Amino acid sequence: MRCEVFLALERKSRDDAAMTSIVRRYRLPLCLLLAVNMSLINFACNRPFYHPDRKIRTLPDVGGIEFEDVFFDTADGTKLHGMLLLAKGETRGAVLHLHGNAANVTGHWPFAGWLPRHGFHVLSFDYRGYGRSAGRVTRAGTIEDAEAALTYLLARPEVNNTPVVVFGQSIGGAIATVLVERHEEDVCGLVMDAAFSSYRRVAAHHVRRSMPLTVLAWWYPFTLNNAFEPVEAISKIENTPKLIIHGDADGVVPVEMAHELFEAAQEPKELWIVPDEYHCSIWNEGGATARERVLAFVESCCSDQTRRDENDVAVESIR
Known about the structure:
The protein is α/β, with parallel strands linked by helices. It has two domains: about 1-50; about 55-315, Rossmann fold (3-Layer(aba) Sandwich), CATH 3.40.50.1820. The chain is about 45% helix and about 15% strand. It contains eight helices and ten strands. The strands form two sheets. The protein has an eight-stranded mixed sheet with strand order 2-3-6-4-7-8-9-10, sandwiched between helices. Strand 2 and strand 3 (about 80-85) form a beta hairpin.
């Protein structure tokens, strides 16, 4: 019996030595494969979510728009930068603009920069880690940033309890759904342009577009958690009108995701699928059709909110 134990231990020792030899022999190739794998995952999956920079592109005063550089703090003390574009003439409402995943606010404000001449204040801001905002971007951080921006906008004297619409583009649309679900009482409308329905599923979409990534990073989307999922958030928004916009040729976010968001959303809701348009490309060359459709929706939301507020005041005075 004792001899058998010694023989077993000897075999195990030889097996361990053989395994150690194999690991040593292939250590460098394995390390290189792991490094390439992680680099590809970072490029293909993390980068599409957040790609900030600090380059200054254009400022609103180029277009004759009166604006202020503003700074405000989030709940965790991160200082954010934004641009408050001031309405011309009589104020009809305000719009909180949540931009896409790349660059910074100096390249995104024009998507909403046409609204001030129609009587709407616009706050377009940078998430943490973007432009002049401090910190490092995270999914949870972007939600805190959006909440801080809404709080700041509502506190501005120019807004003064006027109706507020949230306008989110691409990842900004995903963030916007969570913001409105959490603060539905503070807003009167939600516009989503080229938004995705799920972080995990849009990551999987980008992995599948590349054969090397399909082989090396097929498992990555499964590591993403389901926190702050847009399709879940929009299903919980009860009374706020929603306009979902998407180009049917969008290769960045599949148009099927717009249908998923629309199906999950409660009434009132609108779905505008634009033929032959790519990711946020409806705004190219001035975006006259997009402006007309979005303006009509924003005006409708703000006028409905104003009427509700007036009715509440009237009822309160009768009491």
